[in-house]
Write a structure and sequence with these properties.
Blueprint: H1 5-9, H2 14-29, E1 36-37, H3 49-62, H4 78-89, E2 101-104, H5 107-113, E3 123-128, H6 132-140, E4 144-149, E5 167-171, H7 183-196, E6 199-203, E7 229-234, H8 235-239, E8 247-250, H9 258-268, H10 274-282, H11 286-312, E9 317-319, E10 325-329, H12 336-347, E11 349-350, E12 352-353, E13 364-368, H13 373-388
Parallel strand pairs: 1-11, 3-4, 3-5, 5-6, 6-7
Antiparallel strand pairs: 2-8, 7-8, 9-10, 10-13, 12-13
Helix pairs in contact: 3-10, 5-6, 11-13
Bound molecules: pyridoxal-5'-phosphate.
The site of pyridoxal-5'-phosphate has 14 residues, from helix 5 and helix 8.
Length: 392
């Protein structure tokens, strides 16, 4: 037996364990202090009632002989795939057929599994700093990775690669930088992919945070993208499904990959849970939409409070609009981790050190709008008094 040495060589998830370790150590020595957690990358508000109701009903159906169901279609129920097209794509003028939409148990699985469609020797382009999944799955497959640095100088949108990259992971609105692309910028990537016969895996997990009209909601808004792009979406951030687990992936037939993906899913994935799919379906009802919108409105306002508050204090901040993350440059004299420690020790504020997402993240920390609003307001107050005491 030989293990997958690529997987074996991957390091542990240093970032989040280290955050937990440092936070726990502080708590142990300062049990009286209230910590303000502004680092969370997970939703915090409960699911909207209409979605809960639909899932309760689905459970009840499974309890009775005449409404019971067993295995569903591997690619997801047709009613949900049709609702996705009608609600998420038709209004954008995008034509898809239901067999190009695949229901998943969340974006995380598909972002990893899609890697199986491609040969080992493909070179992968990855934005850096990055959400760890793209890098780790590429490393597990033993692929060569080309890092595409995202810095304040390039407004967190990297230049097109100089060399050939065959697979490109794009995530916009971006986690962790909160950056977005305009239609024109995204079109350049689609052009690159068409010229270089590459495939773009477009992670649109934060699509529901988009407010500006020049920010595309889907890569298929760009002409020709259906030949070179796979789009991955999730109900996790848009409707609070991080625990429920449901998302979907669009693999257009024109990519030449749709049949392969169907074959792969039928073999290795027996479908998302019926209950989760009923919940996702309910997010398209008028009541479900209103509930999800109310949660999003809360997070968007929290993002705005953080962004405005930090900016007023003189911090250099990015994102926070069209995205739930605020990417904040640390003050002079600090790096990501020393500023993390400083905020923890002086304000009891927990953020996420930017360097944990890649070396271009050094000198930044990430604040999250998925935090409690009172905690954000309190954190800003503490930061302000810190600035006044010249402790910064
Ligand atoms: C949260 C998040 C997702 C969603 O993952 P799920 O597995 O659907 O919960 C996908 N991509 C990014 C960048 C995320 O931050």
């Amino acid at each position: 037996m030989q293990v997958n040495t690529h997987l074996q060589q991957l390091q542990g998830n240093y970032l989040f364990t280290e955050i937990v370790n440092r936070t726990e150590a502080y708590k142990a020595t300062h049990p009286e202090q209230r910590l303000l957690r502004l680092g969370v990358g997970d939703v915090t508000l409960p699911l909207p009632q209409p979605i809960i109701h639909a899932m309760h009903q689905a459970v009840e159906e499974l309890a009775h002989e005449d409404t019971f169901r067993g295995y569903g279609p591997e690619e997801g129920y047709i009613w949900l795939r049709q609702a996705i097209i009608d609600n998420d794509y038709q209004p954008l003028g995008i034509d898809l057929s239901t067999d190009e939409v695949f229901i998943s148990d969340g974006a995380g699985s598909d972002l990893g599994n899609l890697s199986e469609l491609f040969g080992r020797n493909n070179r992968v382009g990855i934005l850096e700093p990055t959400y760890p999944a793209y890098l780790d799955t590429s490393a597990m497959a033993g692929r060569e990775v080309v890092f595409l640095p995202c810095t304040a100088e390039n407004h967190f949108v990297p230049e097109l690669p100089k060399e050939q990259v065959d697979l490109i992971y794009l995530c916009y609105p971006n986690n962790p930088t909160g950056a977005t692309l305009t239609h024109a910028q995204l079109a350049q990537w689609v052009d690159y992919a068409r010229e270089h016969h590459s495939i773009i895996i477009f992670d649109a997990a934060y699509e529901s945070f988009i407010e500006d009209s020049d920010v595309p909601h889907s890569i298929y808004e760009i002409k020709g993208a259906d030949e070179v792009a796979i789009e991955v979406r999730s109900y996790s951030k848009s409707a609070g499904f991080t625990a429920v687990r449901c998302g979907y992936t669009v693999v257009p037939k024109k990519t030449g990959l749709q049949a392969m993906w169907l074959r792969r899913q039928c073999t290795k994935f027996n479908g998302a849970s019926y209950i989760a799919q009923r919940g996702a379906m309910a997010s398209y009802s008028p009541e479900g939409k209103a509930g999800a919108q109310a949660n999003l409105a809360y997070y968007k306002q929290t993002a705005d409070i953080l962004l405005t508050g930090l900016r007023k204090m003189g911090y250099q901040v990015f994102g926070g609009k069209n995205a739930p993350y605020i990417w904040c440059r640390v003050p002079k004299g600090y790096d990501s981790w020393s500023f993390f420690d400083h905020l923890l020790n002086t304000c009891q504020v927990v953020c996420t050190p930017g360097v944990g997402f890649g070396k271009s993240g050094e000198g930044y920390v990430r604040f999250s709008a998925f935090s409690k609003r009172e905690d954000c307001e309190e954190a800003l107050k503490r930061l302000k008094s810190l600035a006044h005491s010249k402790n910064l």
